[in-house]
Amino acid sequence: MEFRAAQARIMGDIDAHRVAMQCYIEEGKRLRGLAARAAELSEAQPASEKRKLLDFVVAECRGRCGELEFVFREPFGMMFSFRAL
């Protein structure tokens, strides 16, 4: 009987993880779609809103050898590194 209870608990845990994984995947798809439209959406915003977005995405920005270098906040840094591949 103990085995059946443990098995039922484990199966419930597996189902909960499946649901969570599906939600995670759906959120990722929505985020990817939003990121694909980021430039288009940004152009329509006033400068103050563009600044808020930059503050949200970029942790640090510095000039180096005449070029700008960005350090992104996570998960944006991870997304940028995947895009570069």
Would you write up a description of this structure?
The chain has 85 residues and is α+β, with helices and mostly antiparallel strands. It folds into two domains: 1-36; 45-85, no CATH class. It is built from four helices and two strands, in the order αααββα. A hairpin with a 2-residue loop joins strand 1 and strand 2 (67-72). The protein starts with a helix and ends with a helix. The mean pLDDT is 87.
Structural class by sheet pairing and helices: alpha+beta
From the N-terminal CA to the C-terminal CA, the straight-line distance is 52 Å
Strand order of the largest sheet: 1-2
Q: How would you characterize the largest beta sheet?
A: 2 strands, antiparallel
Layout of helices and strands:
Blueprint: H1 2-36, H2 38-43, H3 47-57, E1 58-64, E2 67-72, H4 76-84
Report a brief summary of the structure.
By secondary structure, the protein is an alpha+beta fold. The chain has helices at residues 2-36, 38-43, 47-57, 76-84; strands at 58-64, 67-72.
Features:
two-stranded antiparallel sheet, 85 residues, 4 helices, single chain, 2 domains, alpha+beta
